[in-house]
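Notes, p. 3: input format for complexes.
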Amino acid sequence: GEAAVDRWVATTCGYCGTGCGLYLGVKDGRAVAVKPDTTAPVNKGHLCLKGLYEWKTLHHPERATVPLRRRGKEMHPVTWERALEEVGQRLREALAAGGPEAAGIYHGGQLTLEEYYAIHKLAKGVLGTPNIDANTRLCMASTVSGYIRSFGVDAPPGCYEDLDVSSLIFIFGANPAEMHPQLWQRILRNRKLNGAKIVVADPRLTLPARVADLHLRLRCGSNIPLLYGLINILIKEDMLDRDFIRRATTGFEELARAAAAFPPERVAGLTGVPAADIVAAARLFGRSPSAVTVFCQGVNQSSQAVDTVTLINSLHLITGKIGRPGSAPFSLTGQASALSMREIGGGGSLPGFRNPENPEHRRQVADYWGIPEERLPRRVNDINRMLELVEDGRLKVLWVIGTNPAVSLPDLGFSRRQLEKVFLIVQDIFYPMETAAFADIFLPGAGWGEKDGIITNSERRLNLVRRAVNPPGEARDDLTIISQVARYLGAGELFAWPGPEDAFRELRELTRGRPNDMTGVDYALLERLGGVQWPCPEGGRGTSRLYTGCFFFTRPEEAQGYGEFNHPEGRARLWAVPYTPPPEVPDGEFPFWLNTGRIIEHYHTRTKTKRIPELQALVPGAYVEINPQDAARLKVAEGELVRVVSRRGWIEVPARITEVVAPGEVFVPFHFGDLDPGERERRQAANHLTGRNVDLLSGQPMAKAGACRIEKL
Ligand code: SF4
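Output follows (713 residues plus iron/sulfur cluster):
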């Protein structure tokens, strides 16, 4: 109750990319409660289960409180000074002996904008290493490449308000009911108030698929033919905005030629979706006054993911459904601040969406940082490449910050061997955790609720997270730890910020005149308005929709400012992408499609949610969903322990017999590691099964399109 709390601290939920506003209740210096912020523009007074219980992570007994150093099999407490000195020394020695590729950093997607900035400044500007990547490689990398290909910049064009007003919500490879519950509520409100139609493309019978007006139950790995099928019908039945295509895009003829090869009957054969449903979906999309396509990991983690994003964008471009209220191709980010990561130069760019291969961009950043330009890497190595470098003995020291690759990386047998081999520094808020089992040095970080900073949600909205309580024991926030390591590397003056807002002031200057201009933003503005959407060069609420001006210009030279597409010609590009079936498809030995994903009760590798009894009790372990027809054929009963086997490895989990998966497909939630503290060992991590096939354009692993078999035990 209100009386039991000393003060309420306004902050933002630290889980999914929705970015819900909430208040954290503090009593005697401890977090004791949460309540939704009724004025927050995103969630308007509602929270989901995870947001409601997030405060329980703050004072958990397994919070890491002191730095640790490995001696033999055991980890022992050491002072911060010793730990930091050794981190600095190891990094320095590795680089001196093996060059820039000998050290690397791999971090999470739930840090603050300021922390990302510091990590990337350290990696690129001080260490000069190309080995810098984030777990967003597993999550949004394909969207980044897809947006850049179509629009010239990695910027989600729409905003959440589009979900409130659109006449058609096309949910493609996403399950907002479980992953972005507050956005799903907004979609349902739109349907109730305005009669919006819902179309879902998903191999699983998810909650959105069950309530949709039309469910396109495509097979795993068949996104490209389905999208081409829709484009084929839009063109054939002339449901296009030809004026928009002419004025604002290039490449239509090539796209039309490619789509002509995908008539509905052929697409039905490739996807398993009835031809009549493909035609119906295209007509719903084409005839709706507005449409939002919401997409997530069913796109990003599938085969040809970047091509899929490109075709989704094209669907909107050829129908003119972009840059207007209720119309956008809208990627939902899974992690609270995944978009912040992209803004500061993750995914291979430099801050302000600068191109590291552009000499002018390199000079701008190097001059601003006061470092020699040649130190900046021209290309970065993604985590896949970094693990190969470890295997080859070239990457010697890896620093993992706020992520749990020992559970989340694909092909865990391979990935864990590399974590074993490298000198590993792990920085996290809990100890023990799976990746820390491989650590040589462990640094205790501060978590959500214990530090100030900005996190950017899926609609480009910068939100504040606030320090409500102190970190436990000797734990320090990541910005402080990174700055202190920089001191041991002799670059302390580049990180001498008195606080996070000073780091933000430095980085925001690097966005001046860039597509994500934040120069009009400061913490006071964010606090006052409850979030601001970039670009925001002049204060105020920023920019809710991009490309609003693309309806008005007629000549490329008029393409300036934020209203137009960011390719040099000012137009969006349509692409005729090839179609290649996934590299691994079911066969006689591995007859099932393997799909992996998330569920509402847990978050990522459960580092936080397994420590919240209310959530852990709801789903305490992994399982495999099997269709009743397959279960009957295999003689598998509900709850029976089965072995799921792929070319990489195996897990043993109970069967959940359900129509949610189609015959011939199985689904395993990816949240679970093999060992829970205080529990028996269970080989249940879905990534024992997944492979290292990646999208060649984005480097993103295909966690949703593999093959496996089910064995009775
Ligand atoms: Fe947090 Fe996402 Fe739930 Fe909102 S919808 S409370 S941001 S987990």
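The two ends are 51 Å apart (CA to CA).
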